[in-house]
Design goal:
Structural class: mainly alpha
CATH class of the largest domain: Mainly Alpha
Strand order of the largest sheet: 1-3-2-4-5
Shape: globular
Largest sheet: 5 strands, mixed
Helix content: 40-55%
Distance between the termini: 31 Å
CATH topology of the largest domain: Glutathione S-transferase Yfyf (Class Pi), Chain A, domain 2
Radius of gyration: 22 Å
Number of domains: 3
Order of helices and strands: HHHHEEHEHEEHHHHHHHHHHHH
Number of strands: 5
């Protein structure tokens, strides 16, 4: 692992800790993070969830748009608007609000939007709610993204997307009465998914239109969640299976920086969806259990949620994010082990060097709790999270095979954002 890193001078001296068989101190770990990762341009650099101001090289005075989206980047309707703004490079600022499934809705937001739904968006002083109405308002003000949402062909595709969404919910979120019922629900979903696959196959570009468009923005948040949830709960592959055009479409999306910045991973989606959707139901068949175990317990680099090659600095990016939030992460851990700081440093030392130093014996559950609550893209990128989960899991595995505290399915109050409020102003 060390051989893959471009070590900065202060890190070289820290390597003596390995000879002493002790984990790095946080100061020593900080030496492995290049300044470029501590000083990311959140306003005009690559799209990341932590940005609260996006300028794309324009002056701050050019901002006319405020996007109100959820803190954890779980909301698909928020993602739809978010990626549209990124693709059009419209300067905007971000206000983040809690979803009801993981926190108390902010009072100021309920005064602005009484029903508390997200996203909302302001253009100058005009407020818009409902994601489709927001995109239509943005089109009116800033021009279309390849094609108008009200183009006749676009309207047909939008209706197809809603039909696919309905069949997904019917299969995933309603318990089947029998194996035949389960099979029929799956077949109904696959029939509509085949229509989507056929539509993508009509264009040489691989997108729904001649270029990436608003229609792709409408489909992508939901097919991303379908791919994750159906793999985990049904053992079914949306991507890398029989639907070749959808697989190609995902490959093309992952080449786009705007999508990569908003993209989540299977682990995050599979555990954030149940409280949002009222439950997700498993088949309990061998293939489904195999897929579920892979997402939950790894090997995390084998989870089929991304094809693009990991950036060489993914582990260092992970480390930069961990160092920034380490105190809040440890404070929120319910195990309250006095040794969690040392165990956490053992995991980060392993992630950076590949050298496994035995963590304190009472910390396996603490490490697994942290592993299971990493959230993509809220906390870090998909590839960085793979490194993070792998390091925490390996350090826990040498101590015990016990499971961590189960992830709630009725709510996600284990993810309440208030503990991180001091660190959330990041731009």
């Amino acid at each position: 692992m060390i051989d893959d890193l471009q070590l900065i001078p202060s890190a070289v001296e820290s390597l003596r800790a390995i000879k002493e068989k002790r984990p790095f101190t946080w100061d020593e770990l900080h030496g492995f993070v290049p300044n470029v990762l501590n000083d990311i341009d959140l306003a005009s650099g690559p799209c990341v969830s932590q940005s609260r101001l996006r300028l794309f090289g324009n002056p701050k005075e050019s901002i006319r748009v405020t996007l109100y989206r959820d803190v954890h980047a779980w909301c698909p309707y928020c993602q739809k608007v978010w990626i549209w703004l990124e693709e059009k490079k419209i300067p905007y600022q971000v206000e983040k609000i809690s979803m009801a499934c993981y926190g108390q809705k902010e009072t100021w937001y309920k005064k602005l939007v009484p029903n508390g739904m997200m996203p909302a968006l302001k253009i100058d002083e005009h407020l818009y709610v409902e994601s489709d109405d927001i995109l239509e308002a943005l089109e009116t003000e800033f021009g279309v993204l390849t094609v108008s949402l009200n183009d006749p062909e676009a309207l047909v595709l939008r209706q197809l997307e809603r039909e696919l969404f309905a069949q997904w919910c019917r299969w995933l979120c309603q318990p089947s009465r029998s194996k035949i019922d389960e099979k029929n629900r799956g077949a109904s979903f696959k029939r509509v998914l085949s229509l989507v696959d056929d539509k993508l196959g009509t264009r040489n570009t691989g997108f729904f239109m001649d270029e990436f468009s608003s229609i792709d923005c409408c489909f992508l948040p939901f097919i991303e969640r379908m791919a994750a949830s159906l793999f985990y709960y049904k053992g079914f592959k949306v991507r890398d299976g029989e639907f070749k055009n959808i697989s190609r479409w995902f490959d093309l999306l992952e080449e786009r920086p705007a999508y990569r910045g908003t993209q989540s991973d299977f682990h995050t989606h599979c555990h954030d969806l149940p409280p949002q959707m009222g439950g997700c139901f498993e088949t309990n068949e061998p293939e489904q259990m195999k897929c579920k175990n892979l997402v939950n317990g790894g090997p995390y680099f084998s989870v089929p949620d991304c094809h693009i090659k990991a950036p060489v600095d993914s582990s260092q990016l992970c480390l930069a994010r961990v160092i920034r939030h380490k105190n809040s992460i440890m404070k929120q851990n319910p195990h309250r082990s006095g040794n969690i700081d040392e165990a956490f440093r053992c995991a980060m030392t392993f992630m950076i060097t590949g050298v496994l130093i035995l963590p304190p014996l009472d910390t396996a559950s603490s490490l697994r709790y942290i592993r299971d609550r990493c959230c993509v893209p809220r906390d870090m990128s998909l590839h960085a999270a793979r490194h993070f989960r792998h390091a925490l899991d390996e350090c826990a595995r040498v101590l015990s095979s016990e499971s961590g505290i189960p992830i709630p399915i009725k709510h996600r109050r284990d993810q309440e954002p208030f503990a991180f409020t001091l660190a959330k102003q990041e731009s």
